[in-house]
Design brief:
- By secondary structure, the chain is mainly β.
- It has 1 helix and 7 strands.
- The chain is globular.
């Protein structure tokens, strides 16, 4: 359903579904990436009137919960988006999202 592109890398379509409404993909060596593209593959559209929020998390090196940061969204009407992640580092933990509530650790 989703794809991820980081400049200079192959497209990633391997996502792990961690709940009925959340999935994650690993972005190895994220420190070397400035922008990512998240897109719908066209294989399975969102249900009418629905979309998906896109979050990014840096792992917490101390072993705590990751710092999930809202990047934006995609939908059937906006099937792709480019997000700048190069300057997103440790900040305030966003607990108002479903990933933080799950306590899911980033890869």
């Amino acid at each position: 359903m989703f794809g991820l592109i980081a400049s200079g890398r192959l497209v990633t379509t391997s996502w792990e579904q961690i709940s009925t409404t959340n999935c994650v993909a690993e972005l190895s060596d994220a420190d070397s990436v400035n922008h990512i593209v998240i897109f719908l593959t066209g294989q399975t559209p969102f249900p009418d009137g629905m979309g998906g929020a896109v979050y990014f998390a840096w792992p917490d090196l101390s072993g705590g919960l990751p710092n999930w940061q809202l990047l934006g969204h995609i939908s059937n009407q906006k099937p792709s988006a480019i997000f700048r992640i190069g300057k997103l580092k440790a900040g305030e933990i966003n607990t108002q999202n479903s990933f933080a509530l799950l306590g899911h650790k980033a890869f």
